[in-house]
Design a protein that fits this description.
The chain is an alpha/beta fold. It is built from 8 helices and 12 strands.
Amino acid sequence: MLSRLFRLSRTGVLAACAVPVAALFVVVGVAPLPYAVAQPGMTVDVLGTDRGQQVITVSGTPTRPTKGQLRMTTIEATGPSADVDLGDVIDGWFRTDRAVLPREAVYPSGESDKEIEKHNVQDMVQSQDSATVAALGYLRRNPDSVDVRLHLADIGGPSAGLLFALGIVDKLDGDGAGGDLTGGRTIAGTGTITENGEVGPVGGVSLKTRAAGRDGATVFLVPKAECGDASAELPKGMRLIPVTTLKGAVSALRALATGGDVPAC
Protein backbone atom coordinates (compact mmCIF):
# COMPACT_ATOMS: atom_id res chain seq x y z
CA MET A 1 0.00 0.00 0.00
CA LEU A 2 2.80 2.37 0.88
CA SER A 3 4.53 1.54 -2.38
CA ARG A 4 1.33 2.22 -4.33
CA LEU A 5 0.82 5.54 -2.53
CA PHE A 6 4.38 6.56 -3.43
CA ARG A 7 3.83 5.77 -7.09
CA LEU A 8 0.59 7.73 -7.14
CA SER A 9 2.23 10.68 -5.44
CA ARG A 10 5.13 10.65 -7.89
CA THR A 11 2.72 10.50 -10.81
CA GLY A 12 0.88 13.44 -9.36
CA VAL A 13 4.11 15.43 -9.02
CA LEU A 14 5.10 14.68 -12.61
CA ALA A 15 1.66 15.66 -13.82
CA ALA A 16 1.85 18.88 -11.86
CA CYS A 17 5.32 19.63 -13.29
CA ALA A 18 4.17 18.89 -16.82
CA VAL A 19 1.73 21.80 -16.77
CA PRO A 20 4.32 24.61 -16.35
CA VAL A 21 6.80 22.80 -18.67
CA ALA A 22 4.16 22.57 -21.39
CA ALA A 23 3.29 26.21 -20.81
CA LEU A 24 6.98 27.11 -21.11
CA PHE A 25 7.22 25.38 -24.49
CA VAL A 26 4.13 27.25 -25.65
CA VAL A 27 5.66 30.57 -24.59
CA VAL A 28 9.06 29.77 -26.17
CA GLY A 29 7.33 28.62 -29.33
CA VAL A 30 5.72 32.00 -29.90
CA ALA A 31 8.22 34.32 -28.20
CA PRO A 32 10.72 36.17 -30.43
CA LEU A 33 14.26 34.78 -30.25
CA PRO A 34 17.59 36.60 -30.84
CA TYR A 35 18.25 34.93 -34.19
CA ALA A 36 18.02 35.74 -37.88
CA VAL A 37 17.13 33.18 -40.54
CA ALA A 38 19.04 33.52 -43.81
CA GLN A 39 18.54 32.01 -47.25
CA PRO A 40 20.14 32.30 -50.73
CA GLY A 41 19.58 35.77 -52.15
CA MET A 42 19.85 37.39 -55.55
CA THR A 43 22.93 37.37 -57.77
CA VAL A 44 23.96 40.10 -60.22
CA ASP A 45 26.33 39.94 -63.19
CA VAL A 46 28.71 42.86 -62.60
CA LEU A 47 29.65 42.76 -66.30
CA GLY A 48 26.01 43.36 -67.24
CA THR A 49 23.16 45.57 -66.13
CA ASP A 50 21.06 46.00 -63.01
CA ARG A 51 17.57 47.42 -63.53
CA GLY A 52 18.51 48.66 -66.97
CA GLN A 53 21.71 50.42 -65.88
CA GLN A 54 25.25 49.19 -66.51
CA VAL A 55 26.80 47.98 -63.25
CA ILE A 56 30.34 49.04 -64.21
CA THR A 57 30.85 52.12 -66.37
CA VAL A 58 34.34 53.24 -67.35
CA SER A 59 35.29 56.48 -69.07
CA GLY A 60 38.60 58.14 -69.89
CA THR A 61 40.09 55.00 -71.42
CA PRO A 62 39.00 52.38 -73.97
CA THR A 63 37.15 49.32 -72.70
CA ARG A 64 36.71 45.91 -74.26
CA PRO A 65 33.48 43.98 -74.86
CA THR A 66 33.09 41.03 -72.53
CA LYS A 67 31.51 37.61 -72.72
CA GLY A 68 30.62 35.29 -69.87
CA GLN A 69 29.41 36.51 -66.50
CA LEU A 70 30.87 37.51 -63.14
CA ARG A 71 28.01 37.17 -60.66
CA MET A 72 28.23 38.70 -57.20
CA THR A 73 26.14 36.80 -54.68
CA THR A 74 24.00 37.72 -51.68
CA ILE A 75 22.00 36.21 -48.87
CA GLU A 76 18.60 37.34 -47.64
CA ALA A 77 17.99 37.44 -43.89
CA THR A 78 15.00 38.24 -41.75
CA GLY A 79 15.06 41.93 -40.89
CA PRO A 80 16.59 43.30 -37.68
CA SER A 81 13.12 44.00 -36.26
CA ALA A 82 11.52 40.79 -37.49
CA ASP A 83 10.32 38.30 -34.89
CA VAL A 84 11.92 34.85 -35.23
CA ASP A 85 10.24 32.19 -33.09
CA LEU A 86 11.16 28.62 -32.13
CA GLY A 87 9.35 27.20 -35.16
CA ASP A 88 11.42 29.37 -37.51
CA VAL A 89 14.64 28.31 -35.78
CA ILE A 90 13.84 24.58 -35.89
CA ASP A 91 12.81 24.84 -39.55
CA GLY A 92 16.04 26.66 -40.38
CA TRP A 93 18.20 24.11 -38.58
CA PHE A 94 16.75 21.19 -40.53
CA ARG A 95 16.82 22.80 -43.98
CA THR A 96 19.98 22.91 -46.08
CA ASP A 97 18.79 26.05 -47.89
CA ARG A 98 18.45 28.01 -44.65
CA ALA A 99 20.87 29.11 -41.93
CA VAL A 100 20.09 30.21 -38.38
CA LEU A 101 22.48 32.92 -37.19
CA PRO A 102 22.72 35.00 -34.02
CA ARG A 103 21.06 38.30 -34.83
CA GLU A 104 24.15 40.27 -33.74
CA ALA A 105 26.20 38.32 -36.33
CA VAL A 106 23.99 39.75 -39.06
CA TYR A 107 23.03 43.15 -37.69
CA PRO A 108 24.89 45.47 -35.30
CA SER A 109 23.21 45.45 -31.91
CA GLY A 110 21.62 48.57 -30.53
CA GLU A 111 20.94 50.13 -33.93
CA SER A 112 17.63 50.94 -35.56
CA ASP A 113 16.57 49.61 -38.95
CA LYS A 114 17.44 52.97 -40.53
CA GLU A 115 20.88 53.06 -38.92
CA ILE A 116 21.61 49.51 -40.09
CA GLU A 117 20.51 50.34 -43.64
CA LYS A 118 22.74 53.43 -43.64
CA HIS A 119 25.65 51.35 -42.31
CA ASN A 120 25.18 48.74 -45.07
CA VAL A 121 25.09 51.41 -47.78
CA GLN A 122 28.29 52.93 -46.43
CA ASP A 123 29.94 49.50 -46.49
CA MET A 124 28.91 49.02 -50.11
CA VAL A 125 30.25 52.44 -51.15
CA GLN A 126 33.55 51.75 -49.38
CA SER A 127 33.71 48.34 -51.03
CA GLN A 128 33.22 49.88 -54.47
CA ASP A 129 35.91 52.49 -53.82
CA SER A 130 38.36 49.83 -52.60
CA ALA A 131 37.59 47.60 -55.59
CA THR A 132 38.28 50.44 -58.00
CA VAL A 133 41.60 51.32 -56.35
CA ALA A 134 42.63 47.64 -56.21
CA ALA A 135 41.74 46.98 -59.86
CA LEU A 136 43.47 50.09 -61.22
CA GLY A 137 46.48 49.37 -59.02
CA TYR A 138 46.67 45.81 -60.33
CA LEU A 139 46.49 47.10 -63.93
CA ARG A 140 48.94 49.91 -63.16
CA ARG A 141 46.50 52.50 -64.47
CA ASN A 142 46.56 56.10 -63.34
CA PRO A 143 43.35 56.67 -61.35
CA ASP A 144 43.44 60.34 -62.36
CA SER A 145 42.86 59.42 -66.00
CA VAL A 146 40.27 56.67 -65.54
CA ASP A 147 36.78 57.29 -64.20
CA VAL A 148 35.03 54.16 -62.89
CA ARG A 149 31.39 54.30 -61.82
CA LEU A 150 29.68 51.39 -60.06
CA HIS A 151 25.92 51.02 -59.78
CA LEU A 152 24.05 48.37 -57.83
CA ALA A 153 20.62 49.10 -56.37
CA ASP A 154 19.23 47.92 -53.04
CA ILE A 155 22.25 45.82 -52.03
CA GLY A 156 24.39 46.68 -49.04
CA GLY A 157 27.52 45.41 -47.37
CA PRO A 158 31.12 44.89 -48.47
CA SER A 159 31.00 41.34 -49.85
CA ALA A 160 30.89 42.24 -53.57
CA GLY A 161 34.33 43.89 -53.49
CA LEU A 162 36.21 41.03 -55.16
CA LEU A 163 33.68 40.70 -57.99
CA PHE A 164 33.63 44.46 -58.62
CA ALA A 165 37.42 44.47 -58.92
CA LEU A 166 37.41 41.47 -61.29
CA GLY A 167 34.73 43.14 -63.41
CA ILE A 168 36.84 46.29 -63.79
CA VAL A 169 39.89 44.21 -64.73
CA ASP A 170 37.87 42.26 -67.30
CA LYS A 171 36.49 45.41 -68.93
CA LEU A 172 39.90 47.06 -69.13
CA ASP A 173 42.29 44.18 -69.70
CA GLY A 174 40.52 40.82 -69.77
CA ASP A 175 42.99 37.98 -69.58
CA GLY A 176 45.83 40.25 -70.64
CA ALA A 177 45.79 38.94 -74.19
CA GLY A 178 42.49 40.37 -75.42
CA GLY A 179 40.36 37.49 -74.15
CA ASP A 180 37.68 37.27 -71.53
CA LEU A 181 38.75 36.75 -67.95
CA THR A 182 35.79 34.41 -67.56
CA GLY A 183 36.64 32.23 -70.55
CA GLY A 184 32.97 32.64 -71.51
CA ARG A 185 31.80 30.89 -68.33
CA THR A 186 29.31 32.01 -65.72
CA ILE A 187 31.51 32.56 -62.68
CA ALA A 188 30.24 33.63 -59.28
CA GLY A 189 31.92 34.48 -56.02
CA THR A 190 32.13 36.60 -52.92
CA GLY A 191 34.75 38.33 -50.80
CA THR A 192 35.67 41.70 -49.40
CA ILE A 193 38.65 43.52 -50.88
CA THR A 194 41.12 46.09 -49.62
CA GLU A 195 42.73 48.81 -51.70
CA ASN A 196 45.91 46.72 -51.99
CA GLY A 197 43.94 43.77 -53.32
CA GLU A 198 43.65 41.50 -50.30
CA VAL A 199 40.50 39.34 -50.23
CA GLY A 200 38.68 38.75 -46.93
CA PRO A 201 35.93 36.42 -45.64
CA VAL A 202 32.28 37.42 -45.62
CA GLY A 203 30.06 34.70 -44.10
CA GLY A 204 27.05 32.89 -45.52
CA VAL A 205 29.08 31.28 -48.31
CA SER A 206 27.19 27.96 -48.26
CA LEU A 207 24.00 29.88 -49.06
CA LYS A 208 25.76 31.98 -51.69
CA THR A 209 27.00 28.90 -53.56
CA ARG A 210 23.38 27.75 -53.74
CA ALA A 211 22.32 31.12 -55.12
CA ALA A 212 25.13 30.91 -57.67
CA GLY A 213 24.18 27.39 -58.75
CA ARG A 214 20.54 28.40 -59.08
CA ASP A 215 21.56 31.21 -61.45
CA GLY A 216 23.78 29.10 -63.68
CA ALA A 217 27.29 29.47 -62.24
CA THR A 218 29.66 26.52 -62.53
CA VAL A 219 32.65 28.14 -60.78
CA PHE A 220 32.68 29.90 -57.42
CA LEU A 221 35.50 32.12 -56.09
CA VAL A 222 35.61 31.85 -52.31
CA PRO A 223 37.88 33.49 -49.71
CA LYS A 224 40.36 30.75 -48.81
CA ALA A 225 39.48 30.93 -45.10
CA GLU A 226 35.91 29.89 -45.93
CA CYS A 227 36.66 26.85 -48.09
CA GLY A 228 35.21 24.49 -45.47
CA ASP A 229 31.92 26.36 -45.22
CA ALA A 230 31.61 26.62 -49.00
CA SER A 231 32.22 22.89 -49.44
CA ALA A 232 29.53 21.91 -46.93
CA GLU A 233 26.49 22.27 -49.20
CA LEU A 234 28.18 22.74 -52.58
CA PRO A 235 25.81 22.34 -55.55
CA LYS A 236 26.58 19.38 -57.78
CA GLY A 237 29.02 20.19 -60.56
CA MET A 238 30.24 23.47 -59.06
CA ARG A 239 33.98 24.08 -58.83
CA LEU A 240 35.42 26.02 -55.88
CA ILE A 241 38.48 28.23 -56.33
CA PRO A 242 40.03 29.62 -53.13
CA VAL A 243 41.46 33.15 -53.32
CA THR A 244 43.39 35.45 -51.00
CA THR A 245 44.23 38.33 -53.35
CA LEU A 246 42.92 39.97 -56.52
CA LYS A 247 46.12 38.99 -58.31
CA GLY A 248 45.61 35.36 -57.28
CA ALA A 249 41.99 35.42 -58.44
CA VAL A 250 42.96 36.78 -61.86
CA SER A 251 45.74 34.20 -62.20
CA ALA A 252 43.36 31.37 -61.25
CA LEU A 253 40.78 32.47 -63.83
CA ARG A 254 43.44 32.73 -66.53
CA ALA A 255 44.64 29.24 -65.68
CA LEU A 256 41.06 27.98 -65.77
CA ALA A 257 40.53 29.47 -69.23
CA THR A 258 43.73 27.95 -70.64
CA GLY A 259 43.57 24.56 -68.93
CA GLY A 260 46.38 25.32 -66.49
CA ASP A 261 46.75 24.43 -62.81
CA VAL A 262 43.92 25.96 -60.80
CA PRO A 263 43.92 26.16 -56.97
CA ALA A 264 41.33 24.03 -55.19
CA CYS A 265 39.86 23.98 -51.71
